[in-house]
Amino acid sequence: MKAQVEQVKMCVGGEWVNRKNKIDVYNPQNNELIASVPAASKEDMLRAIEEAKEGVEIAAEMPVHERISILNRAANLLAERKEEFAQTIAQEGSKTIREAAGEVTRAIETLRISAEEARRIKGETISFDQRLGSENRVGYYYRFPIGLIAAITPFNDPLNLVAHKVGPAVASGNALIVKPASVTPLSALKLAGLMEEAGLPKKVLSVITGRGSEIGDLLIEHEDIQMISFTGGYETGHEISTKTGVKKLGMELGSNSPAIILKDANLEKAVSSTVSGAFAAAGQNCIGVQRIYVEREVYDEFKTEFIKRTEQYVTGDKLSPVTDMGPLITEKEAIRVENWVDDALDKGAHLLCGGKRKGAFYAPTVIEQLPEHSILASEEVFGPVVILYAVDDFDEAIQKSNDVDYGLQAGIFTQNLEHAFKAIHKIKVGGIMINDSSDYRIDAMPFGGVKKSGIGREGIEYAINEMTEPKVVCFNLA
User: Fold this and answer.
1) Is position 83 annotated as part of the catalytic site?
2) What range does the domain containing 46 cover?
3) Percent of the chain whose pLDDT exceeds 70
4) 44/137 same-domain check
5) Are 413 and 260 in contact (CB under 8 A)?
6) Do residue 233 and residue 319 come from a single domain?
7) What is the pTM of this model?
8) Do residues 186 and 88 touch, judged by C-beta distance below 8 A?
9) CB atoms within 10 A of CB 371
10) What is the pLDDT of residues 223-252, one digit of tens each?
11) Which stretches make up the Aldehyde dehydrogenase domain (predicted)?
12) Residue pLDDT, tens place only, 118-166
Protein backbone atom coordinates (compact mmCIF):
# COMPACT_ATOMS: atom_id res chain seq x y z
CA MET A 1 0.00 0.00 0.00
CA LYS A 2 1.32 3.42 -0.96
CA ALA A 3 2.15 5.64 2.02
CA GLN A 4 -0.14 8.63 2.47
CA VAL A 5 1.56 11.93 1.71
CA GLU A 6 1.38 14.48 4.52
CA GLN A 7 -0.84 17.45 3.71
CA VAL A 8 0.71 20.46 5.43
CA LYS A 9 -1.25 23.70 5.86
CA MET A 10 0.15 27.20 5.49
CA CYS A 11 -0.17 30.01 8.01
CA VAL A 12 -2.14 33.05 6.85
CA GLY A 13 -2.41 35.70 9.51
CA GLY A 14 -2.23 33.09 12.24
CA GLU A 15 -4.86 30.83 10.64
CA TRP A 16 -3.79 27.48 9.25
CA VAL A 17 -5.39 26.89 5.87
CA ASN A 18 -5.29 24.35 3.09
CA ARG A 19 -5.86 24.80 -0.63
CA LYS A 20 -6.88 22.54 -3.48
CA ASN A 21 -3.87 23.59 -5.56
CA LYS A 22 -0.71 22.03 -4.18
CA ILE A 23 3.06 22.17 -4.32
CA ASP A 24 4.66 18.77 -3.85
CA VAL A 25 7.75 18.48 -1.69
CA TYR A 26 10.27 15.79 -2.65
CA ASN A 27 13.28 14.27 -0.95
CA PRO A 28 16.09 15.11 -3.40
CA GLN A 29 18.01 11.97 -2.46
CA ASN A 30 15.49 9.58 -4.02
CA ASN A 31 12.81 11.88 -5.45
CA GLU A 32 10.30 10.47 -2.96
CA LEU A 33 7.19 12.61 -2.43
CA ILE A 34 7.17 13.44 1.29
CA ALA A 35 4.54 16.18 1.63
CA SER A 36 2.28 18.63 -0.15
CA VAL A 37 1.71 22.26 0.80
CA PRO A 38 -0.80 24.80 -0.50
CA ALA A 39 0.05 26.67 -3.68
CA ALA A 40 -1.05 30.09 -2.50
CA SER A 41 -2.97 32.37 -4.84
CA LYS A 42 -2.81 36.15 -5.18
CA GLU A 43 -5.96 36.29 -3.07
CA ASP A 44 -4.16 34.38 -0.31
CA MET A 45 -1.30 36.84 -0.39
CA LEU A 46 -3.64 39.83 -0.31
CA ARG A 47 -5.41 38.31 2.69
CA ALA A 48 -2.06 37.76 4.43
CA ILE A 49 -1.11 41.39 3.85
CA GLU A 50 -4.45 42.66 5.16
CA GLU A 51 -4.14 40.51 8.28
CA ALA A 52 -0.53 41.62 8.72
CA LYS A 53 -1.58 45.28 8.69
CA GLU A 54 -3.39 44.53 11.95
CA GLY A 55 -0.38 42.47 13.00
CA VAL A 56 1.79 45.57 12.64
CA GLU A 57 -0.20 47.32 15.36
CA ILE A 58 -0.28 44.24 17.58
CA ALA A 59 3.49 43.68 17.27
CA ALA A 60 4.37 47.32 17.91
CA GLU A 61 2.30 47.36 21.10
CA MET A 62 3.85 44.20 22.53
CA PRO A 63 6.00 45.17 25.51
CA VAL A 64 9.64 44.20 25.26
CA HIS A 65 9.38 41.65 28.09
CA GLU A 66 6.67 39.84 26.14
CA ARG A 67 8.79 39.70 22.98
CA ILE A 68 11.68 38.34 25.06
CA SER A 69 9.49 35.67 26.67
CA ILE A 70 8.03 34.52 23.34
CA LEU A 71 11.42 34.19 21.72
CA ASN A 72 12.92 32.33 24.69
CA ARG A 73 9.95 29.96 24.83
CA ALA A 74 10.32 29.33 21.11
CA ALA A 75 14.03 28.56 21.57
CA ASN A 76 13.24 26.15 24.41
CA LEU A 77 10.56 24.38 22.37
CA LEU A 78 12.94 24.07 19.45
CA ALA A 79 15.60 22.57 21.72
CA GLU A 80 13.07 19.99 22.96
CA ARG A 81 12.24 19.04 19.35
CA LYS A 82 15.71 19.21 17.90
CA GLU A 83 15.65 15.71 16.43
CA GLU A 84 12.21 16.24 14.86
CA PHE A 85 13.29 19.47 13.17
CA ALA A 86 16.60 17.95 12.06
CA GLN A 87 14.73 15.09 10.40
CA THR A 88 12.55 17.59 8.53
CA ILE A 89 15.56 19.60 7.32
CA ALA A 90 17.36 16.45 6.18
CA GLN A 91 14.27 15.03 4.46
CA GLU A 92 13.24 18.09 2.47
CA GLY A 93 16.68 19.49 1.69
CA SER A 94 20.24 18.54 0.86
CA LYS A 95 21.79 18.39 4.31
CA THR A 96 22.97 15.28 6.05
CA ILE A 97 21.43 14.51 9.41
CA ARG A 98 24.58 15.80 11.14
CA GLU A 99 24.44 19.05 9.19
CA ALA A 100 20.71 19.35 9.87
CA ALA A 101 21.23 18.90 13.62
CA GLY A 102 23.85 21.63 13.47
CA GLU A 103 21.40 23.94 11.73
CA VAL A 104 18.78 23.37 14.45
CA THR A 105 21.39 24.21 17.10
CA ARG A 106 22.14 27.44 15.26
CA ALA A 107 18.44 28.31 14.97
CA ILE A 108 18.01 27.84 18.72
CA GLU A 109 20.91 30.24 19.24
CA THR A 110 19.42 32.68 16.71
CA LEU A 111 16.15 32.85 18.65
CA ARG A 112 17.94 33.24 21.98
CA ILE A 113 20.16 36.02 20.68
CA SER A 114 17.03 37.71 19.31
CA ALA A 115 15.50 37.61 22.78
CA GLU A 116 18.66 39.15 24.25
CA GLU A 117 18.85 41.88 21.63
CA ALA A 118 15.20 42.84 22.15
CA ARG A 119 16.18 44.44 25.46
CA ARG A 120 19.06 46.33 23.83
CA ILE A 121 17.13 48.41 21.30
CA LYS A 122 18.12 51.81 22.59
CA GLY A 123 18.38 55.46 21.64
CA GLU A 124 20.61 58.33 22.76
CA THR A 125 20.26 61.82 24.11
CA ILE A 126 21.08 64.61 21.66
CA SER A 127 22.85 67.85 22.61
CA PHE A 128 20.55 70.28 20.86
CA ASP A 129 22.30 73.18 22.59
CA GLN A 130 25.30 72.63 20.32
CA ARG A 131 23.55 75.06 17.97
CA LEU A 132 23.37 78.75 18.79
CA GLY A 133 19.82 79.63 19.76
CA SER A 134 18.91 76.10 20.90
CA GLU A 135 20.03 76.48 24.50
CA ASN A 136 16.54 75.72 25.80
CA ARG A 137 16.04 72.53 23.80
CA VAL A 138 16.62 68.97 25.04
CA GLY A 139 15.83 65.66 23.45
CA TYR A 140 16.78 62.23 22.26
CA TYR A 141 16.07 59.64 19.61
CA TYR A 142 14.64 56.16 19.93
CA ARG A 143 14.15 53.34 17.42
CA PHE A 144 10.69 52.27 16.30
CA PRO A 145 9.64 49.23 14.24
CA ILE A 146 9.52 49.70 10.50
CA GLY A 147 6.17 47.89 10.18
CA LEU A 148 5.48 45.04 7.77
CA ILE A 149 8.43 43.05 6.46
CA ALA A 150 8.42 40.59 3.56
CA ALA A 151 11.00 37.83 4.02
CA ILE A 152 12.00 35.62 1.10
CA THR A 153 14.23 32.70 2.06
CA PRO A 154 16.25 30.06 0.14
CA PHE A 155 16.45 26.28 0.35
CA ASN A 156 19.95 25.78 1.68
CA ASP A 157 19.24 26.70 5.34
CA PRO A 158 15.47 26.19 5.46
CA LEU A 159 15.18 26.72 9.22
CA ASN A 160 17.97 29.01 10.42
CA LEU A 161 17.68 31.53 7.59
CA VAL A 162 13.96 31.82 8.38
CA ALA A 163 14.83 32.25 12.05
CA HIS A 164 17.21 35.05 11.01
CA LYS A 165 14.20 36.92 9.63
CA VAL A 166 11.60 35.97 12.25
CA GLY A 167 13.74 36.44 15.36
CA PRO A 168 14.87 40.03 14.73
CA ALA A 169 11.45 41.03 13.37
CA VAL A 170 9.66 39.83 16.51
CA ALA A 171 12.38 41.27 18.77
CA SER A 172 11.96 44.71 17.19
CA GLY A 173 8.15 44.74 17.17
CA ASN A 174 7.45 44.15 13.48
CA ALA A 175 5.00 41.96 11.59
CA LEU A 176 6.34 39.54 9.02
CA ILE A 177 5.25 37.57 5.96
CA VAL A 178 7.65 34.75 5.07
CA LYS A 179 7.79 33.26 1.57
CA PRO A 180 10.04 30.17 1.89
CA ALA A 181 11.63 28.34 -1.02
CA SER A 182 9.04 26.13 -2.71
CA VAL A 183 11.34 23.09 -2.56
CA THR A 184 11.88 23.37 1.24
CA PRO A 185 8.79 24.92 2.85
CA LEU A 186 8.29 22.44 5.71
CA SER A 187 10.87 23.79 8.16
CA ALA A 188 9.49 27.32 7.87
CA LEU A 189 5.95 26.12 8.49
CA LYS A 190 7.06 24.11 11.52
CA LEU A 191 8.81 27.20 12.89
CA ALA A 192 5.63 29.25 12.45
CA GLY A 193 3.69 26.65 14.43
CA LEU A 194 6.34 26.72 17.13
CA MET A 195 6.21 30.54 17.35
CA GLU A 196 2.44 30.33 17.75
CA GLU A 197 2.81 27.74 20.50
CA ALA A 198 5.33 30.02 22.20
CA GLY A 199 2.66 32.73 22.40
CA LEU A 200 3.22 34.93 19.35
CA PRO A 201 -0.09 36.71 18.69
CA LYS A 202 -1.99 35.85 15.55
CA LYS A 203 -1.51 38.11 12.52
CA VAL A 204 2.08 38.99 13.48
CA LEU A 205 3.54 36.14 11.39
CA SER A 206 2.39 34.49 8.17
CA VAL A 207 4.21 31.79 6.20
CA ILE A 208 2.85 31.65 2.66
CA THR A 209 3.80 28.71 0.46
CA GLY A 210 3.47 29.42 -3.22
CA ARG A 211 5.24 29.86 -6.49
CA GLY A 212 7.20 33.06 -6.91
CA SER A 213 5.75 33.49 -10.40
CA GLU A 214 2.27 33.61 -8.87
CA ILE A 215 2.65 35.60 -5.65
CA GLY A 216 6.18 37.00 -5.64
CA ASP A 217 5.60 40.29 -7.43
CA LEU A 218 2.49 41.03 -5.39
CA LEU A 219 4.43 40.57 -2.17
CA ILE A 220 7.41 42.74 -3.07
CA GLU A 221 5.46 45.48 -4.87
CA HIS A 222 2.58 45.95 -2.43
CA GLU A 223 2.55 49.43 -0.94
CA ASP A 224 1.91 48.15 2.60
CA ILE A 225 5.20 46.24 2.66
CA GLN A 226 7.82 48.52 4.23
CA MET A 227 10.88 46.28 3.86
CA ILE A 228 12.08 43.34 1.77
CA SER A 229 14.52 40.95 3.44
CA PHE A 230 15.80 38.59 0.75
CA THR A 231 18.39 35.82 0.78
CA GLY A 232 19.09 34.23 -2.58
CA GLY A 233 20.81 34.71 -5.91
CA TYR A 234 22.00 37.94 -7.49
CA GLU A 235 19.75 37.78 -10.55
CA THR A 236 16.61 37.43 -8.43
CA GLY A 237 17.83 40.13 -6.07
CA HIS A 238 18.45 42.49 -8.96
CA GLU A 239 14.96 41.79 -10.31
CA ILE A 240 13.41 42.45 -6.90
CA SER A 241 15.27 45.75 -6.56
CA THR A 242 13.86 46.98 -9.87
CA LYS A 243 10.27 46.23 -8.85
CA THR A 244 9.93 47.20 -5.21
CA GLY A 245 9.63 50.96 -5.50
CA VAL A 246 10.67 53.04 -2.49
CA LYS A 247 11.17 50.35 0.15
CA LYS A 248 13.94 49.36 2.47
CA LEU A 249 15.98 46.44 1.12
CA GLY A 250 18.14 43.92 2.92
CA MET A 251 19.74 41.41 0.55
CA GLU A 252 22.32 38.65 0.86
CA LEU A 253 23.03 37.53 -2.69
CA GLY A 254 25.77 34.91 -2.55
CA SER A 255 29.41 34.92 -3.55
CA ASN A 256 32.37 33.18 -5.17
CA SER A 257 34.46 33.01 -2.05
CA PRO A 258 38.28 32.82 -2.03
CA ALA A 259 40.75 31.32 0.40
CA ILE A 260 44.46 32.19 0.39
CA ILE A 261 47.09 29.70 1.58
CA LEU A 262 50.47 31.30 2.22
CA LYS A 263 53.68 29.30 2.44
CA ASP A 264 53.92 29.81 6.20
CA ALA A 265 50.42 28.42 6.82
CA ASN A 266 49.61 25.38 8.90
CA LEU A 267 48.82 23.21 5.87
CA GLU A 268 47.03 20.48 7.79
CA LYS A 269 44.64 23.01 9.28
CA ALA A 270 44.26 24.80 5.94
CA VAL A 271 43.39 21.58 4.10
CA SER A 272 40.88 20.44 6.70
CA SER A 273 39.17 23.81 6.86
CA THR A 274 38.96 24.41 3.11
CA VAL A 275 37.76 20.89 2.27
CA SER A 276 34.93 21.30 4.78
CA GLY A 277 34.33 24.85 3.56
CA ALA A 278 34.05 23.70 -0.04
CA PHE A 279 31.82 20.65 0.34
CA ALA A 280 29.60 21.22 3.40
CA ALA A 281 25.92 21.15 2.43
CA ALA A 282 27.00 19.83 -0.99
CA GLY A 283 28.60 23.20 -1.68
CA GLN A 284 25.20 24.92 -1.58
CA ASN A 285 26.40 27.59 0.77
CA CYS A 286 26.76 31.29 0.10
CA ILE A 287 30.07 31.47 2.00
CA GLY A 288 31.41 28.14 0.78
CA VAL A 289 34.97 28.03 -0.57
CA GLN A 290 35.07 28.13 -4.37
CA ARG A 291 38.56 29.49 -5.18
CA ILE A 292 41.79 28.60 -3.36
CA TYR A 293 44.99 30.56 -4.06
CA VAL A 294 48.12 28.76 -2.85
CA GLU A 295 51.67 30.12 -2.89
CA ARG A 296 53.64 28.15 -5.44
CA GLU A 297 56.24 26.85 -2.96
CA VAL A 298 53.59 24.80 -1.13
CA TYR A 299 51.10 24.27 -3.96
CA ASP A 300 51.95 20.66 -4.76
CA GLU A 301 51.95 19.62 -1.11
CA PHE A 302 48.65 21.37 -0.47
CA LYS A 303 47.09 19.91 -3.63
CA THR A 304 48.10 16.38 -2.76
CA GLU A 305 46.65 16.58 0.74
CA PHE A 306 43.52 18.42 -0.46
CA ILE A 307 42.74 15.72 -3.03
CA LYS A 308 43.43 12.97 -0.49
CA ARG A 309 41.02 14.54 2.01
CA THR A 310 38.40 15.18 -0.68
CA GLU A 311 38.46 11.57 -1.86
CA GLN A 312 37.81 10.49 1.74
CA TYR A 313 34.60 12.55 1.82
CA VAL A 314 31.67 10.14 2.24
CA THR A 315 28.75 10.83 -0.11
CA GLY A 316 25.47 8.97 0.27
CA ASP A 317 22.41 8.55 2.47
CA LYS A 318 21.64 11.84 4.21
CA LEU A 319 20.22 10.11 7.27
CA SER A 320 23.34 8.05 7.92
CA PRO A 321 25.53 9.53 10.67
CA VAL A 322 28.69 8.64 8.72
CA THR A 323 27.68 10.55 5.58
CA ASP A 324 29.58 13.78 4.93
CA MET A 325 27.66 15.00 1.88
CA GLY A 326 24.23 14.40 0.42
CA PRO A 327 22.69 15.32 -2.93
CA LEU A 328 22.10 18.73 -4.43
CA ILE A 329 18.63 20.14 -3.96
CA THR A 330 17.37 18.80 -7.34
CA GLU A 331 18.72 16.75 -10.20
CA LYS A 332 18.30 19.87 -12.35
CA GLU A 333 20.81 21.69 -10.15
CA ALA A 334 23.21 18.75 -10.30
CA ILE A 335 22.99 18.80 -14.09
CA ARG A 336 23.72 22.55 -14.10
CA VAL A 337 26.85 22.00 -11.99
CA GLU A 338 27.87 19.13 -14.26
CA ASN A 339 27.48 21.40 -17.30
CA TRP A 340 29.58 24.14 -15.72
CA VAL A 341 32.36 21.68 -14.94
CA ASP A 342 32.21 20.15 -18.42
CA ASP A 343 32.41 23.64 -19.91
CA ALA A 344 35.54 24.33 -17.86
CA LEU A 345 37.15 21.05 -18.91
CA ASP A 346 36.30 21.71 -22.56
CA LYS A 347 38.11 25.05 -22.25
CA GLY A 348 41.27 23.46 -20.86
CA ALA A 349 40.79 23.04 -17.12
CA HIS A 350 42.33 19.97 -15.46
CA LEU A 351 40.11 17.67 -13.36
CA LEU A 352 41.91 16.47 -10.22
CA CYS A 353 39.07 14.42 -8.73
CA GLY A 354 35.29 14.08 -8.84
CA GLY A 355 33.40 15.35 -11.85
CA LYS A 356 30.80 12.57 -11.76
CA ARG A 357 27.03 12.84 -11.38
CA LYS A 358 24.39 10.29 -10.42
CA GLY A 359 20.90 11.73 -10.24
CA ALA A 360 20.97 14.67 -7.84
CA PHE A 361 24.34 13.60 -6.44
CA TYR A 362 27.49 15.27 -7.73
CA ALA A 363 30.83 14.06 -6.44
CA PRO A 364 33.13 16.49 -4.56
CA THR A 365 35.13 17.97 -7.42
CA VAL A 366 38.53 19.66 -7.55
CA ILE A 367 39.81 21.51 -10.63
CA GLU A 368 43.01 23.36 -11.49
CA GLN A 369 44.27 25.36 -14.48
CA LEU A 370 40.86 26.96 -14.92
CA PRO A 371 40.67 29.45 -17.83
CA GLU A 372 39.61 32.94 -16.83
CA HIS A 373 36.76 32.97 -19.37
CA SER A 374 35.09 29.95 -17.74
CA ILE A 375 31.82 30.61 -15.91
CA LEU A 376 33.27 28.81 -12.87
CA ALA A 377 35.92 31.49 -12.58
CA SER A 378 33.51 34.36 -12.10
CA GLU A 379 30.09 33.12 -10.94
CA GLU A 380 28.83 31.30 -7.87
CA VAL A 381 28.69 27.56 -8.59
CA PHE A 382 26.53 26.71 -5.54
CA GLY A 383 27.67 23.13 -5.74
CA PRO A 384 30.53 20.87 -4.56
CA VAL A 385 33.22 22.27 -6.86
CA VAL A 386 36.44 24.03 -5.86
CA ILE A 387 39.24 25.47 -8.01
CA LEU A 388 42.93 25.44 -7.02
CA TYR A 389 45.33 28.12 -8.25
CA ALA A 390 49.09 28.44 -7.78
CA VAL A 391 50.19 32.05 -7.25
CA ASP A 392 53.66 33.57 -7.21
CA ASP A 393 53.15 35.79 -4.18
CA PHE A 394 50.71 37.30 -1.70
CA ASP A 395 49.96 40.35 -3.84
CA GLU A 396 48.85 38.16 -6.73
CA ALA A 397 46.59 36.20 -4.37
CA ILE A 398 44.93 39.41 -3.17
CA GLN A 399 44.50 40.73 -6.71
CA LYS A 400 42.91 37.49 -7.91
CA SER A 401 40.73 37.22 -4.81
CA ASN A 402 39.24 40.62 -5.68
CA ASP A 403 38.89 39.81 -9.37
CA VAL A 404 35.20 38.84 -9.26
CA ASP A 405 32.01 40.84 -8.89
CA TYR A 406 31.21 39.30 -5.49
CA GLY A 407 32.53 40.03 -2.01
CA LEU A 408 30.82 38.20 0.83
CA GLN A 409 33.59 36.50 2.84
CA ALA A 410 37.17 35.30 2.39
CA GLY A 411 39.71 33.25 4.31
CA ILE A 412 43.47 33.46 4.65
CA PHE A 413 45.89 31.00 6.27
CA THR A 414 49.13 32.52 7.54
CA GLN A 415 51.23 32.88 10.68
CA ASN A 416 52.30 36.40 9.68
CA LEU A 417 50.33 39.19 11.34
CA GLU A 418 51.50 41.73 8.77
CA HIS A 419 50.10 39.57 5.99
CA ALA A 420 46.88 39.00 7.93
CA PHE A 421 46.29 42.73 8.35
CA LYS A 422 47.16 43.43 4.74
CA ALA A 423 44.51 40.92 3.70
CA ILE A 424 42.02 42.49 6.11
CA HIS A 425 42.47 45.90 4.48
CA LYS A 426 42.96 44.89 0.86
CA ILE A 427 40.46 42.08 0.21
CA LYS A 428 37.07 43.54 -0.70
CA VAL A 429 34.60 41.47 1.27
CA GLY A 430 32.12 41.83 4.12
CA GLY A 431 34.03 39.42 6.36
CA ILE A 432 37.52 37.95 6.41
CA MET A 433 38.51 34.89 8.45
CA ILE A 434 42.14 34.49 9.54
CA ASN A 435 43.25 30.85 9.69
CA ASP A 436 39.72 29.79 8.80
CA SER A 437 38.02 29.37 5.47
CA SER A 438 35.34 31.76 4.25
CA ASP A 439 32.82 29.22 5.55
CA TYR A 440 32.78 30.48 9.12
CA ARG A 441 30.00 32.46 10.73
CA ILE A 442 28.38 32.97 14.10
CA ASP A 443 24.80 34.17 14.19
CA ALA A 444 25.56 37.23 16.29
CA MET A 445 28.05 38.85 13.91
CA PRO A 446 27.20 41.34 11.13
CA PHE A 447 26.81 39.23 8.01
CA GLY A 448 26.66 40.52 4.47
CA GLY A 449 28.80 41.55 1.55
CA VAL A 450 29.87 44.14 -0.96
CA LYS A 451 29.55 44.39 -4.74
CA LYS A 452 27.06 41.84 -6.07
CA SER A 453 26.97 40.00 -2.74
CA GLY A 454 24.24 42.19 -1.33
CA ILE A 455 22.91 45.20 0.55
CA GLY A 456 22.86 45.65 4.32
CA ARG A 457 23.75 43.21 7.08
CA GLU A 458 22.11 40.32 8.90
CA GLY A 459 23.12 38.98 12.30
CA ILE A 460 20.56 39.72 14.99
CA GLU A 461 21.66 43.12 16.30
CA TYR A 462 22.37 44.35 12.78
CA ALA A 463 19.13 42.98 11.33
CA ILE A 464 17.21 44.75 14.10
CA ASN A 465 18.95 47.96 13.11
CA GLU A 466 17.75 47.40 9.53
CA MET A 467 14.22 46.62 10.74
CA THR A 468 13.85 49.78 12.84
CA GLU A 469 14.11 53.51 12.20
CA PRO A 470 15.27 56.32 14.48
CA LYS A 471 12.72 58.91 15.61
CA VAL A 472 13.98 62.21 16.97
CA VAL A 473 12.21 63.86 19.95
CA CYS A 474 12.96 67.46 20.89
CA PHE A 475 11.46 69.53 23.73
CA ASN A 476 11.56 73.32 23.55
CA LEU A 477 11.61 74.37 27.19
CA ALA A 478 11.67 78.12 26.59
Assistant:
1) no
2) 6-253+453-474
3) 99
4) yes
5) yes
6) no
7) 0.95
8) yes
9) 13
10) 999 999 999 999 999 999 999 989 999 999
11) 16-473
12) 999 999 999 999 999 999 999 999 999 999 999 999 999 999 999 999 9
The CA distances from residue 20 to 37, 38, 39, 199, 219, in Å, are: 10, 7, 8, 29, 21
pLDDT reported for residue 6: 86
Residues 131, 174 share a domain: yes
Q: How many domains does the chain have?
A: 2
Check whether residue 202 and residue 168 sit in a common domain. Answer: yes
Query: With contact defined as beta carbons under 8 Å apart, do 41 and 230 qualify?
Result: no
- Interval 348-377 mean pLDDT: 96
- How far apart CA 174 and CA 147 sit, in angstroms, is 5
Q: Are residues 89 and 74 in the same domain?
A: yes
Judge whether 183 lies within some domain: yes
Q: Is 286 annotated as catalytic? A: yes
Model confidence pLDDT, tens digit, residues 174-183: 999 999 999 9
Q: Is residue 312 part of a domain?
A: yes
**Which residue in the list 252, 295, 333, 461 is annotated as catalytic?**
252
172 shares its domain with 229: yes
The catalytically annotated residue of 92, 117, 286, 295 is 286
Q: Are residues 200 and 129 in the same domain?
A: yes
Q: Cα angle vertex 383, ends 380, 385, to 5°?
A: 90
Say whether pLDDT at 1 is over 60: no
Q: What is the pLDDT of residues 287-310, one digit of tens each?
A: 999 999 999 999 999 999 999 999
Sign of the dihedral defined by the CA atoms of residues 222, 223, 228, 233, in that order: positive
